[in-house]
Specification:
Blueprint lengths: L3 E2 L9 E2 L5 H10 L4 E3 L5 H12 L3 E3 L9
Parallel strand pairs: 3-4
Antiparallel strand pairs: 1-2
């Protein structure tokens, strides 16, 4: 999945991605899941919401927050 680097991080593997991928869309089209579940507070929620709306698949979102140092 493509992404762009975060400021102040000098790591080529830590990338910010919107989660939009032709491969993921193809998987969703061919496997037709009953529901798409997202438990990320990040940008992947936007991709999951888009895929769910495009394909008419219900979306379950869980907002997980850590209230202490994990």
């Amino acid at each position: 999945m493509l992404g762009f680097s975060l400021p102040f991080y000098n790591s080529p593997t830590l990338l910010l991605s919107l989660g939009l991928s032709a491969r993921v869309l193809w998987r969703l089209l061919t496997h037709r899941p009953d529901v798409i579940h997202v438990s990320s507070p990040g940008f992947l929620v936007f991709a999951a919401t888009l895929y769910a709306k495009l394909l008419g698949i219900p979306l379950a979102r869980a907002r997980l927050m850590c209230t202490r140092i994990c």
